[in-house]
Write a structure and sequence with these properties.
It is a single chain. By secondary structure, the chain is of the alpha+beta class. The chain has two domains: about 60 residues, Orthogonal Bundle (Arc Repressor Mutant, subunit A), CATH 1.10.10; about 170 residues, Beta-Lactamase (2-Layer Sandwich). The chain is about 45% helix and about 20% strand. The strands form two sheets. Strands 5-4-3-8-7-6 form a six-stranded antiparallel beta sheet, with helices on both faces.
């Protein structure tokens, strides 16, 4: 029996599932992997992928598909990320020059952070983060910096969703994370002490909007054996405060 055509809402959800199957380091995906990641039957995933190719949101590479240029163009129109990134890049460049370490800019989406821009450093560690990639907010300095200056309902939803563990040092107890966020609110700086990945540490500070809530966060990351958090923390805090003022946020 032939599969009945999906309704508009069903098709949209399935199309989003197909697009969301791509990860930051994927060049392209084959039919089987696309179906597995999207959770759709192979025939359904294939048909939707062809529709997305026709719309320019995906591009064909033989039997495989990759994200299309039109999808990138649409993404560049997202106001919050574009404005934040454009304003942040000069400050990020100065911060990298001052610290000689990798600098991140991230925003919060659900219980995860999305990396909007990364300025790498020569000789720095290979980071688990990538532009457009995601990590659980509770294991990252940028995530904790944003959560500390987010509305209470946002923090509550993250704490109640279950905290991910990406290394042996990840904080997964809601009470412990809540107390850490209180400290971040007092000091303005959050830390990742090998919580997102072994051997990597970072200091992060929130970028605040006019309402006092975080628009995103800046961080400086490096090797745990060579980067001194106490030295880079004031630099990232100052850069985040300056960027906040640029965007009309509270000092």
């Amino acid at each position: 029996m032939a599969e009945s055509p999906p309704s508009g809402g069903t098709f949209l959800r399935r199309a989003v599932a197909v697009l969301a199957a791509f990860r930051a380091d994927d060049a392209d995906l084959g039919p089987a992997e696309l179906a597995r990641r999207s959770g759709l039957p192979k025939s359904t995933a294939h048909r939707i992928a062809l529709d997305l190719v026709e719309a320019g949101l995906l591009e064909r590479r033989g039997p495989r598909v990759r994200l299309g240029l039109k999808l990138f163009e649409i993404g560049q129109r997202v106001p919050r990320q574009r404005v934040l990134r454009d304003a942040a890049v000069p400050h990020m460049s100065d911060l990298r020059e001052a610290t000689r370490q990798t600098v991140h800019l991230a925003v919060l989406e659900g219980a995860e952070v999305v990396y909007v821009e990364i300025l790498g450093s020569a000789g720095g560690p290979r980071m688990p983060s990538q532009v457009g990639g995601r990590l659980p907010a509770n294991v990252t300095g940028v995530g904790k910096a944003i959560l500390a200056f987010s509305p209470p309902d946002v923090v509550r939803s993250v704490l109640e969703a279950g905290l991910a563990k990406t290394s042996e040092r990840s904080v997964t107890a809601p009470g412990l994370l809540a107390r850490e966020l209180e400290r971040v609110r007092r000091e303005g700086v959050a830390y990742d002490r090998e919580e997102s990945g072994t051997g990597i540490v970072c200091a992060a500070s929130p970028v605040l909007g006019p309402d006092g809530y975080a628009l995103g966060a800046l961080s400086v990351s490096g090797w745990a054996t060579t980067m001194r958090l106490a030295v880079v923390a004031p630099a990232v805090h100052t850069a985040a405060l300056t960027l906040s003022r640029t965007l009309g946020g509270e000092p």
